[in-house]
């Protein structure tokens, strides 16, 4: 399901052959290290922050966009580390998040019908016949741009950008005049004090505070692309998808007898799967069995995306079923995709309050059902966009006209994203 129809099969095969010979984007060691961290999160010892664009665009592979996104994720994780009093695993929804599932195969505007835009890895968003033709050369471009994104991200992190001693590196221009500035600065100062205290006790700098891990993830949608990156590794058994640390299966392609589950059950990477309100118990338990056949900790991540209005009705029975069957899984809440709505003028948006309400309900429902919410999955950007309504600046429908840039789903802007982290810890403090 959800695969493009390429006009020229030979050109596709040629592109895939070239792709499968290129170096991987991640290594099996990193994949194993993420699995260990996810197992710790499952055991309640960590929290997972997964976030980034709904759809990366090729044009967004630019230094400012990458650093700003990294900054906001680092700021959020600092707030979460401090507020939840525990380590946070950061997983970017980037360096490969280029393919998008679509509800319809075609799009009609003013009486003209064209094939749907399926993400920059397939075709272009412009509403012209030529732009919408799937182009296999885009597979190679996606690989190259993912590699550049990762190279820059790794360079920044290894060079000290993520050093907890220097949170000022992550300041975005707005921090000074934000309504949230005081709250954020209080946490930065508190962490600085703790660091100095511990390093005094330890008699010197503690290396662990100078660098952080950053993992990548994307929806494993375009199976030709994923397969071209699926490799064996010397001295390790099994297959690894080396295009990303953490692939996930989208809600539209999670059928038990579908190709995406069939592909993902064969790889060693931890695998996520999106769970919506239409899931039933047999389907969910079937996914657990297929995607984590050896019932290993850190292997399966269930990402529920119910919507604030539906989560209370659906989540408890799912938690109960998974626990009852003895399946190991990490639970994440995606509070974005169940809360999408259209404005009166037909713009896709989400309300900050719905997003926050779903996250808080997820924490509470897991707790009252003897489970634990292990993290959040968010669509956000480090840019000053106006795509979601509400937040501290109370963005209105009128504001959406100012800076709506997403080609697919509305993202939290940097300030809304940080506010969400601050709100989460103010209610969920352990
Ligand atoms: C997404 O994560 O962008 C997405 C399409 O989500 P879902 O599969 O949950 O609808
Ligand atoms: Mn999305």
UniProtKB/TrEMBL annotation:
The lineage of its organism: Bacteria, Pseudomonadati, Pseudomonadota, Gammaproteobacteria, Nevskiales. Mn(2+) binds at residues 54, 379, 409. This is Phospho-2-dehydro-3-deoxyheptonate aldolase. It comes from Hydrocarboniphaga effusa AP103. Its cofactor is Mn(2+); Co(2+); Cd(2+). Pfam families: DAHP_synth_2 (PF01474). One of its GO terms (biological process) is aromatic amino acid family biosynthetic process. Belongs to the class-II DAHP synthase family. Its EC number is 2.5.1.54. Keywords: Cadmium, Cobalt, Manganese, Transferase. Binds 1 divalent cation per subunit. The enzyme is active with manganese, cobalt or cadmium ions. It catalyses: D-erythrose 4-phosphate + phosphoenolpyruvate + H2O = 7-phospho-2-dehydro-3-deoxy-D-arabino-heptonate + phosphate. It comes from the Bacteria. Phosphoenolpyruvate binds at residues 93, 274, 305, 337. GO terms for molecular function: 3-deoxy-7-phosphoheptulonate synthase activity. InterPro entries: Aldolase_TIM, DAHP_synth_2.
